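Thread: quick sanity check before group meeting

JM: Hey all, I'm pulling together slides for Thursday and realized we never actually wrote out the predicted structure for the chain we discussed last week. Dropping the sequence here so it's in one place. If anyone has concerns about the input, flag it before I start.
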Amino acid sequence: MRRAGLILALLGSTLLGSVCESGPDSVLAGDPADPVTGLVYEIVPGAPRIAAGPDGSFGTDDDQVGPEIGDIDLVIRSLASFVGAIPPTAPRRAGGAIPTVVAGRLGVGTGIPFSLALTDGVLPLGPPVVLDDLSDLPMLVLAYADFDGDGYIGITQLDGDALDSDVEEAELVPIARRYAFLPQTTTSGELFAQAGGPPGAELDVVLSVVTWAGRRRPGFFSGAVPDGPALMTRLPFHPLTSVLDTLGDDPGPASAGSLVGAEVRPAFEPDPGDPAIGEAFTMLLDGSQPSTDRARIRSSEFVRFGLAVTPKADFFDDMPSRPLRPGFDDAGARVLYEILHQLSLPDDGSSSEATVRVVPLDAFGNIASLPIGETVELEASGSLEIRWPDRDGDVQRESLSIRDGRGADIVIDDSGGALDDADWGRLTVTSPSGIYFLDVSIPDPDVDDSGLVDFGDLMLIGALDGARVGEAEYDSRFDLDGNGRLQDDDLDEAASHLGAAVTIP
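JM (edit): ok, ran it. Output follows.
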């Protein structure tokens, strides 16, 4: 069995040669292999071979970049089906039309059509390779989103911005996944994604696939997954390829339902500034990478209003708890927002106001088009107030006219003074379409409520170092900078107030 996280040559040509109708090793033809053992390496197409080095761990100084480059064994197309030779990617097919679907789930919205095939990797791509003995090969289909709209997916410098890598990490998490099964030559299906953008700011995605070759053995994941090497299309990173890392527990006999928990996670996040790697893992949306394909997702119908903020690069945490979605600024240009479920404001009086945007949302939390303007009523409660706009002189209430999908900004802050132990606030957005609540935490450095910022507070904050929004260990009371992560910055903020008295109501 493979060691988790290591790039190893797991199975040799003898394993697949006996099951390829189109000739010995037709899928692995041209694949780089270990010159000593003859076993093929697991490499992302178009990228160099990455090895964990002697310590067996990725992300350390002894990671190794090999001279071998991965070829194409697996192909996906955003088509319901195809016959004969594998067609070009969507941007390069006749007409260049990008398939556009509506965000949703099975039974709601529309799915991205896809077709999968195995190939010998010879360009231009010929007919799919037939593998009789690998019937019902499990294929994990993934969609990666171009959140920032720069035409690239992953951590890149091709967009001319070397400082947005934290936000680009959001693009390393697939927005949709499902299993399909390859009976012999090709298979088709639909991939539903709940993320999308309004017309004019749709979410562009690249479709990718990961699978495993080899033989099915009853003692290996109940025969659900072959025990051979991982095969993959282009990905924005080198993945953990061990089935143990991808599936976790034994899912039982093979079925789409039994494999829905599968994940493809980075073993090695590329650094485009590294001359040995460069942009080798960057996914392009221009159709020039033949193993993957492109689609576009539009948000579904407006259902209610919500709140969003412009994400700060160093505030991005992870997709499930802090979703990023495209929308519009005041001028109607496409911009990226973080859809808010919670917010932190420091207990510093009027020093740290927060600008949030009231936006129309669909049922899945995407920014949506607004068919007709509506008036929303804003209400601040607890230790929270609305600083702007303030047309009526009441900092607890405000009426706001939302004319279209651009939404409108408001400014909020804690209502008291600095270090007055203002614990929480709530902002309620009410309109004819429904009600939306945003809970706001207002943490102060006296986390143990002793009335004094002391070393006990520093110890409590330090004990939770690394906890993030969405994790059980995370506690917003200790998140002094409100970025969704408990880290050294929070400790430094508390240390800067060491000895300060905090008013306890």
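AS: nice. The chain has five helices and 26 strands. Residues 241 and 346 are 42 Å apart (CA to CA).
JM: adding both to the slides.
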